[in-house]
Structures are given as structure tokens and as C-alpha cells.
Write a structure and sequence with these properties.
The structure holds 2 protein chains of 2 kinds. Chain A is mainly alpha-helical. Chain A has 2 helices and 1 strand; from the N terminus they run E-H-H. Chain A has helices spanning 6-31, 43-92; one strand at 2-3. The longest helix of chain A has 50 residues, at 43-92. Chain A is rod-shaped and about 75 Å long. The two termini of chain A are 33 Å apart. Chain B is α/β, with parallel strands linked by helices. Chain B is built from 17 helices and 9 strands. In chain B, strand 6, helix 14 and strand 7 (449-453) form a beta-alpha-beta unit. The N and C termini of chain B lie far apart (168 Å). Classes of the chains: A mainly alpha, B alpha/beta. At the A-B interface, strand 1, helix 1 and helix 2 of A face helix 1, strand 1, helix 2, helix 3 and helix 9 of B. Strand 1 of chain A pairs antiparallel with strand 1 (54-55) of chain B.
Chain lengths: 99, 629
């Protein structure tokens, strides 16, 4: 059973959007790092480290965006369901043309 | 007889060190990324699941949030480890760079000694052989020692590299990040934050506490709370700089990623201040310090871009105040805030450059750490926002509050000072001089000297003489340009900011500054220039400020004997005479002259009409008379 009001779901979607934006911004910081500045010997391991975490932060960002979109989809589905139910109910009413 | 003397060979040139101070930007990027991901975790945990949301969907959302936090926290843990290792590496390489420079110098000396010995051997007599042999032996020993030292330096370079390589390798996968995050000895930043808060702003206690932390604890707090670490007095300048640069990096990335048209006014103001701070850190000329041959050590000692209702608080140091022989804190005045710290930094940098050339190390700080009366673009016409802010210049409220903040900041510098006690000067300009005076009078400013330039008043009705400022004997200096209108404002009472400190009877040491050009209301810009020229290159003022910062006496002159306000009154009277009375008099004279001309014209017209009438009457009389002839 779903016990949530639409504004709560919408606001949760916004939180996920903001979260995705913040992590994406963190990834941008990471992309700005220049491993070569650490010297020839260190640069390869620094590059490996950076590549690994840039990829992971991208996955985290995508996950957060997916959560936001999923919540918005639920809101849309609820709205459609409510509209359909309302239309059905209206048809049952005498003045709704159902009888 | 032939004698053989074994002369050691030259020492080969050292390979250059690859790593310089620019490597610290990698640490900043790692830390900036960690800070932002850490912020995302905190924000999601705080706002992600409203308490009023229940049921299966809430459980599902909670589970998603937990999973997100778990993965993101693993990233933070890995980045913490890498940033800490990188920070240590850069610091070690800085030390090794100094060692490299020293050994390169010794090599040149050694090779010159070898060449000299060889020249002396050629053509030497038999009697000189024992002495030459002894020199050769000493040179051989020096050669061996130098080669050993060079090998040792490269060994330490290799070890530092190995440690960093190992740190990166230990944390370069999500699984390893997870293990680091779950480690039982991972620092608890909530506890650390509470401990710091409990110290209540006692900078000596903060310094002792900070030094008691492990490197891992310091790094964790620096990443989770860079704004706190960067702006807490008593935390060493290097660490404050690292924390503030992480915050700056975060703001530039995060706010810069929002399309301009989508940014709110507050975000736009925030980004403007972040970019201005970035500009202040990149002042042209700071790339090279003639004293060391290295880039100037520029430190972001304060960074709170949203403080004071969006005006922002920023401090930029040229040189490191913790290690400098001479330190100066420059306090700007009205119309300054975080949005023009780059301009204030240029002043501080000019002072740094000039003061730094006497063989002693120097640090100068542009300190915009108080809420100066200024203009806030986010609420241009609001009351009591902007209009109230500008209006506050006629009162001392902000100078009083700023005085407390300045005194605390200086206490922090004293707490973190290393080695011999630094000679510390505070220089207040304009409203900043009133602020600095309040710091001295109200809070006992712990500085070696206080300098007031372009001062509208030495703050407070209780400050009637230099001794009321509580500084050391003869350690209050004043510079007031003759044609700086702000220095004509000193007075007590509600509409004043205290006594004019350049008056003879105030008792401060008044030093020579250029007069500045005379100006009038139409050339008021010149008057403003006179007020903002104290740090100009090649000015008497900058020369004397340099002396003060170095702990020397400036060129002194007699103080003023004409009350400050008399100058303002004279100016207003002169301007009133020139712009109102004299033009009005001229206008009246012109109108009188016009009226006289008009009267003349009317009279001429009247006379002509009378003449015409008379002629007409004569002619009509002639006509009439002719009827009867």
C-alpha cells in the first residue's frame, strides 16, 4: 500500500536531483586533477585511482537520477490513475451521463 | 721526481625534481571531490525521507537512500586516504626540493674547488705537495659526502613516491573504499566537530587540540567540514588554506555547473565572490618570489562567501603568517566585501613585495573578515538591506562588531605563530581604521603596531588620546593625505566615528604621505583617488607602510592642528561659494543687466512711438489747417 502524498514524492524526487547534481559536481572536481603533476612514477597509479572513482561517481550520479525519475513516474501514474477513477466515477453519476 | 696527487672528479649535475608546488592542486581536487560527495550524503540523509512518509514506498525509498549513502561514503573514504597521502607527499617534496637546491649549490662549489686544486697542482713546487695532497684528501671526503647526500635525497624521493603509489593502490576500487569506510578506526567527524565547538573560540586551545589530532582525523574533518576548519582561528594557516581551497573548488564547480539563467540572485552573488577569491589567489606577479625564486606562498586564510547577508568574508595572505618574521593584517574600509577582495589583495601584495626585500620573511593579509558598510546587489533597494547597509557607514556599529572579529583573528595568528614571535602590524584603511581602533580599544589588539590610514575617526567616544587605544608606547601610526576628504570627518558623537587620529593633540605618530590633488565637486573622482592611493606603487605612503611592517620607524611629520571638521566645512563653503553663491550672483547680475537692457529698449520704443505720434499729430494738424486755407 502506498501511503504518501504527491508533494512528498515530488519533493523526494527533487532531493535525488540535487544529490545527483552535487555528486556530479564532485566528479567534475576529480576530472580537474592532473596526475602528471605528481611525477612520472606516481602518475599511472594516480590515473588508475582517478579513473576508478570517476566511473563510480558517474554510476552513483546515474543511480540518483534514476531514482528521481522513478519517483516522478510514480507521481504521473498516480495522477493518471486518479483521473481514470474520477472519470469512471463521473460516468456512474446521473448527471455524468452514466445512466 | 714525479708525485701523484689523486684529485676527486667533478660531481655530475643533479637531475631536476619533477614535482613542484603545483602538485598541491591535485590534493585540492581530491579534497574538493570528497567534500562534495560528503555533502551529498549529509543532505540526502537529512532531507531524503520526510518523517510523514510511511508505508512500503517509504521503506523502498529508505532502502535506496541507504544504498546511495553506502556507496557514496565509500568514495569519500577512498578520497580521504588519497588526499591525505597526496598532501603529505607534496609537503615532503617541498622539503626535498629545498634539499635539491642546497645540494646543487654544494656541487657547484665542489667542482669549482676541484678546478682550483688542479690549477694549483699544475706548476706547483715539491714543497707545496703535502699541502696540496691534504687539500685533495679533504676534497675527496667532501666528494664522497656530497655523493652520499645526493643518493640519500633520491632515495627519499623514491620512498615518498612509493608511499603515494601505495596509497592510491590501496583505495582504487569501490570495494576497497567500502573497507576503508567500514574500518573501526575511521575518524568520527561528528565527535571532532563537537570537540572543536566545545573549545568556544579559544584560539590557543584550538591550536593545541588540532595538533593533538592524527593526520587521518584532521583530513576527515577538513573534508567533512572545510568551512569550519578554514575559518576557525587557531587552526594553522596551511590547513586553513587547504580547507578553504576545497570549499572554493566546491563552489566554483557546483555553482558554475548551474546555467546562468537558472541561478538565483543569491547563487549569482555567491559565485561572483567565489570567482573573485580565485582571482585574488592568482594576482599577477605572485608566481615568482624574488627572495626565494619560488612562487609566492598564497594562502586563502578565510573563505565564507555567503557570510554577512551575502556580502561574504574572505582573507588572502601573501606569504605564510605562521612562519613569517613580519606579518601585516590590512583591514579595508567601506564599500568593500567579498566581491572585491582581488583589489584589496593587490594592495596587500604590493606591500608584501616591497616589504619582503630586506632578508626577512614577510606575510601580508588582505582581511575582509567583517561586515563593512557596502552594497549588496541581491537586494538593491531593500530596507533595511542595502540602503541600511550604506547608511550604517555613519555609525560605528559594524566597526565595533568588526573590531571583535579582527582581535580574534589576530589572536589566532599569535596562537599558530611558529618559531620566534612574528612582528605583527595591523593596518586599517578608512572605515577599517575605525574597526581596527575598536579592536585595540575594546578588545586589546595583540599586535606590535596599529596603523590608521585615511581614517574617518579612531573609533568610540572613549578614545580621546592615543593611549586610550592601549597599544605599545609609540606604536600607533597615522597617515592622512591632505586632500583625502575622509580624513576630514573625524568627530565624536552619533554622527562621527571618533577623533581624527592625525591631530597633534591625539598623540599618535603621523607619517608622511603624498597630499593628493585638490579637487572640487565636479572632480570628486580625484578626491576618491586621494582616499584610495595609500598603497600605490612609488608613493611615500607605501614606503612608510613598508618601514612599519618591517618594524622600522617611518618618516614622521607634524600632526594636524586644524580640526578635521573645519577642513570639511571649508571645503563645503568653498564649493557652496563656487557652485551656488557665485553662479547665483552671476545669474542675478545677468538678469539685472537683461532688465536694464529691456528698460532701455522699452524707453527707446516709447520715445520712438512718442515721436511718431507727434509727427502724425503735426501732419494731421497740417491737414486740418489746410482745410481752412
Amino acid at each position: 500500500m502506498i501511503d504518501a502524498r504527491y508533494p512528498l514524492l515530488t519533493s523526494a524526487a527533487t532531493v535525488w536531483d540535487e544529490t545527483a547534481a552535487t555528486v556530479r559536481s564532485g566528479r567534475t572536481s576529480l576530472e580537474g586533477a592532473e596526475p602528471a603533476l605528481l611525477g612520472t612514477r606516481v602518475a599511472p597509479s594516480a590515473s588508475t585511482f582517478l579513473a576508478a572513482w570517476e566511473a563510480e561517481l558517474l554510476r552513483i550520479t546515474t543511480g540518483a537520477e534514476h531514482n528521481a525519475e522513478a519517483l516522478r513516474a510514480v507521481v504521473r501514474d498516480f495522477a493518471l490513475t486518479d483521473s481514470a477513477r474520477a472519470a469512471e466515477a463521473t460516468r456512474l453519476l446521473p448527471h455524468g451521463g452514466g445512466l | 721526481m714525479t708525485t701523484t696527487i689523486f684529485v676527486p672528479p667533478d660531481v655530475a649535475a643533479l637531475e631536476p625534481l619533477e614535482v613542484d608546488s603545483s602538485a598541491s592542486t591535485v590534493t585540492t581536487s581530491l579534497r574538493g571531490a570528497a567534500t562534495q560527495v560528503s555533502d551529498a550524503v549529509s543532505s540526502a540523509e537529512e532531507k531524503g525521507l520526510p518523517p510523514s512518509w510511511s508505508g512500503d514506498s517509504a521503506k523502498s525509498a529508505g532502502s535506496a537512500m541507504t544504498e546511495f549513502a553506502r556507496r557514496a561514503d565509500a568514495a569519500v573514504a577512498a578520497l580521504e586516504v588519497a588526499a591525505r597521502a597526496c598532501d603529505v607527499y607534496v609537503e615532503q617534496m617541498a622539503g626535498l626540493r629545498l634539499e635539491h637546491t642546497r645540494l646543487s649549490g654544494e656541487r657547484i662549489t665542489h667542482n669549482r674547488d676541484v678546478a682550483t686544486l688542479l690549477a694549483d697542482i699544475n706548476g706547483a713546487t715539491e714543497e707545496q705537495v703535502p699541502a696540496l695532497q691534504a687539500r685533495a684528501t679533504r676534497l675527496q671526503e667532501a666528494h664522497t659526502r656530497l655523493e652520499d647526500d645526493i643518493a640519500d635525497m633520491w632515495r627519499r624521493v623514491g620512498e615518498a613516491e612509493d608511499r603515494l603509489i601505495s596509497a592510491f593502490a590501496s583505495a582504487d576500487s569501490p570495494g576497497e573504499g567500502r573497507s576503508l569506510a567500514d574500518a573501526t578506526d575511521r575518524p568520527d567527524t561528528d565527535v571532532l566537530r563537537r570537540e572543536l565547538s566545545d573549545l568556544g573560540g579559544d584560539s590557543d586551545a584550538v591550536y593545541a587540540w588540532w595538533n593533538s589530532l592524527t593526520p587521518a582525523q584532521r583530513e576527515a574533518l577538513l573534508i567533512s567540514d572545510p568551512d569550519l576548519v578554514g575559518n576557525t582561528n587557531g587552526i594553522p594557516i596551511d590547513d586553513r588554506d587547504e580547507a578553504n581551497r576545497a570549499s572554493l573548488d566546491r563552489d566554483l564547480d557546483r555553482l558554475g555547473a548551474i546555467p546562468k539563467e537558472d541561478r538565483t540572485a543569491e547563487q549569482e552573488a555567491w559565485l561572483l565572490r567565489a570567482r573573485e577569491a580565485e582571482k585574488a589567489l592568482q594576482i599577477p606577479g605572485a608566481q615568482y618570489d624574488p627572495m626565494t625564486g619560488l612562487p609566492v606562498d598564497v594562502n586563502l586564510v578565510m573563505y565564507a562567501p555567503t557570510a554577512f547577508g551575502g556580502d561574504g568574508a574572505v582573507g588572502v595572505a601573501f606569504g605564510n603568517p605562521d612562519t613569517a618574521d613580519n606579518t601585516a593584517v590590512v583591514v579595508p574600509g567601506i564599500m568593500n566585501d567579498g566581491s572585491n577582495i582581488a583589489g584589496n589583495s593587490e594592495d596587500a601584495f604590493r606591500l608584501f613585495n616591497q616589504a619582503n626585500g630586506n632578508g626577512e620573511s614577510t606575510a601580508t593579509i588582505a582581511w575582509m573578515g567583517y561586515d563593512s558598510p557596502s552594497f549588496n546587489p541581491t537586494n538593491a533597494w531593500s530596507w533595511p538591506g542595502n540602503i541600511g547597509d550604506i547608511g550604517s557607514v555613519v555609525s560605528e556599529g559594524k566597526a565595533e562588531a568588526g573590531g571583535a572579529a579582527l582581535a580574534d583573528f589576530v589572536d589566532g595568528l599569535r596562537s599558530t605563530d611558529q618559531g620566534d614571535r612574528s612582528h605583527l602590524s595591523v593596518i586599517g584603511h578608512s572605515y577599517g581604521s575605525t574597526t581596527a581602533s575598536h579592536a585595540a580599544h575594546d578588545h586589546g589588539l595583540d599586535a606590535d603596531s596599529l596603523t590608521l590610514i585615511g581614517s574617518p575617526g579612531a573609533g568610540g567616544d572613549d578614545v580621546n588620546h592615543v593611549r586610550d587605544l592601549g597599544m605599545g608606547e609609540g606604536k600607533v601610526y597615522v597617515g592622512s593625505a591632505e586632500n583625502d576628504f575622509v580624513t576630514w570627518l573625524g568627530r565624536d558623537g552619533e554622527l562621527g566615528m571618533g577623533r581624527d587620529p592625525s591631530q597633534v593633540d591625539f598623540g599618535a605618530k603621523v607619517f608622511e604621505v603624498d597630499d593628493g590633488e585638490e579637487f572640487t565637486i565636479p572632480t570628486f573622482g580625484t578626491g576618491v583617488d586621494n582616499h584610495t592611493s595609500y598603497f600605490d606603487a612609488n608613493s611615500s605612503s607605501l614606503d612608510n607602510l613598508t618601514s612599519i611592517v618591517r618594524g622600522d620607524e617611518p618618516d614622521l611629520v607634524e600632526g594636524r592642528t586644524t580640526p578635521a571638521n573645519d577642513r570639511a566645512v571649508d571645503f563645503v563653503e568653498d564649493e557652496a561659494r563656487r557652485t551656488v553663491i557665485e553662479p547665483t550672483q552671476r545669474w542675478i547680475d545677468d538678469r539685472v543687466s537683461d532688465a536694464q537692457d529691456l528698460a532701455e529698449d522699452v524707453k527707446d520704443w516709447h520715445d520712438e512711438r512718442v515721436e511718431d505720434m507727434s509727427r502724425w499729430a503735426d501732419e494731421r494738424w497740417e491737414d486740418f489747417s489746410s482745410l481752412w486755407r
